[in-house]
Amino acid sequence: MGDNLIDYIEKFELLIFFSGYPLVYSLVYFIHGQSGKKQNAMLFRLPSLLPFAYALTASVFLSFWLREKILEQQIQNFQPDDQISYLRTWGLAAVLFWIPVFNKKPYYSLLHSLVFFFIFFKDLVTGIHSVGGREIIRNEMKIYTISLALNITTLILVFLVSAIIKKMFPRQ
Q1: pLDDT in tens, 61-115
Q2: Is there a contact between 14 and 116 (Cβ–Cβ < 8 Å)?
Q3: Beta-carbon neighbour count of residue 20 at 10 Å?
Q4: Which DSSP category does 78 fall into?
Q5: Is 57 exposed, middle or buried (0-12, 13-18, 19+ CB in 10 A)?
Q6: Where are the domains of the chain?
Q7: Could you tell me the CA-to-CA distances from 69 to 77, 79, 137 in Å, in that order?
Q8: What does the CA dihedral 137, 143, 149, 155 come to, rounded to 10 degrees?
């Protein structure tokens, strides 16, 4: 990653939106394994909603990125780091999980998000032995907490919308 402040902030943006998803994915599958199908049919469907929650998170990221681009046209003096640009493109590709071909297998969304989790994990491992690295770890743990909250919130929203749609249009 680049050494300037803008690259650092852009990396944090990506981590906020995507790094917490693997833990949310794991928690959902843990809950799914603990609850039986007969106990709660809606909770049993939760893993199939994961790609939609991930796509919603990516859509929010896309809206923030588009807003940033509109503001950037007014400033016109910003050149992003190439590695950040590749990561941003990878993050924006998560919007494809709205398409049925991609959302049929929830583990595709997990594989997609692991790239960002590994960036977070790499920073944890490499920064633990230096004072400056500990400060980065402290910042990234805050970012990771926000990412978990964001990903849990999008999953809850998708779950609620799914439940409302299922109640309004029951299968006959």
Answers
A1: 999 888 877 776 655 555 554 555 788 889 889 999 999 999 888 899 999 999 9
A2: yes
A3: 25
A4: -
A5: buried
A6: 5-168
A7: 12, 12, 29
A8: -110
